[in-house]
Write a structure and sequence with these properties.
Blueprint lengths: L13 E5 L2 E4 L4 E7 L9 H17 L5 E8 L3 H13 L3 H20 L3 E11 L9 H13 L7 H25 L4 E3 L2 H12 L12
Amino acid sequence: MALETQATQDFIPIKDIENGIVVLKDGSLRSIIMASSLNFALKGDEERNSIIFQFQNFLNSLDFSIQLFIQSRRLDIRPYLTLIEQQHKEQVNDLMRIQTQEYIEFVRNFTENTNIMTKNFFVVIPYTPPILQGKNVSANFNLLARKNENPNKERDEKDIFEENRTQIEQRVSVVEQGLTRCGVRTVVLGTEEVVELFYKMFNPGETEKPIQVT
């Protein structure tokens, strides 16, 4: 008997990514915020206590769950070395050429012998439309799908998405304001950044450049 094979996409719960919002196969949404880090060790006692107090208030103010996600990856130094090597070729001063070459070798040897890691911090914000919050999620989702197939439906899928998008963006705003009070800088990932993030997660063996947020 021949074995049935399934595509990799069958095991990924993502249905679509639109305007930076992840739409899961069960109809729920996810928005992702990239957050800066804080060097807590360099803060004074009073400033530390203030940050902890603000973060505590932020968590207590939420009436929905969030997920804190830290991505650790080995630093890819190759783009930087390529830039320095280009500058080395353009040097007209012999002494500067020698020093640049020595610097390139130093950086290359150092990174090869030292496991330098880079960390990115993310906050995942969920939103589940009310119709999906009942006990029978699949039945409700199928009912919604049948309604969408009706040519006389009052709202199409785009209208429903825009309404749900408004709800999740309100949650995103609450999280951004709370983190800002703690001294953390935030930026909401767009579609390209979200795709890149998931690509790196599902392809951990490939070395890619860090996420660039404009």
